[in-house]
Amino acid sequence: MAIFVGTHENKVDRKGRVSVPAKFREAVAGQAFHGVVVYRHYELPALEGCGMDQMEAYVEQMDAFDLFSNDHEDLATILFAESEQLSFDGEGRIMLPPAFMEYAGITERAVFAGKGKRFQIWEPSAFAAERDRARQRARDKGLTLPQKQGARQAAE
Fold this sequence. Notes:
By secondary structure, the chain is α+β, with helices and mostly antiparallel strands. It has a single domain (7-155), classed as Transcriptional regulator MraZ domain (Chemotaxis protein chec).
C-alpha cells in the first residue's frame, strides 16, 4: 500500500509537466501502473492523487452502495470517470491536464501534499491558506487520533 507523506513544491513547465516527489514515486513503485491517478477534489480547489492500489480499494468500497443509486453514480463519476492515469516520464514527471491545472489554479509551481493513502496537488498560496485553516479547525475541535481497541486496552 502506498503511503504519501510530506509537502513538496515543484516547478511546472509550459507544457504542464511537473516532477512528482521521489518519495511519492517510490510509494507507488511496483504497482501495475507506472504512474499515479489524479482527479479533481470535489470540494477543494485542488487535485487528489493516489496509486492504482487505492483506486482498487475505492472500487471495493463502491460495493457498499446500491448499483445505479444516485450516491453510487455520483461517486463513480467523481472517482473514476473524471480521473486520469498520469504516467511517469523518464525524469519522474507527470503531465497535468490543462483542465486540471485550471481547476486548481496551478500555473508555474505546484505543491504536492501527502495525505496518507492519497495526496493532493495545490497552487502554493492556496495550499498555504488551506494548511492554516486545517490546523486551526483541528485545534478548535481538539482533534486527536483514536487508538486502536487493542492498544487502548493494553494502555489501561
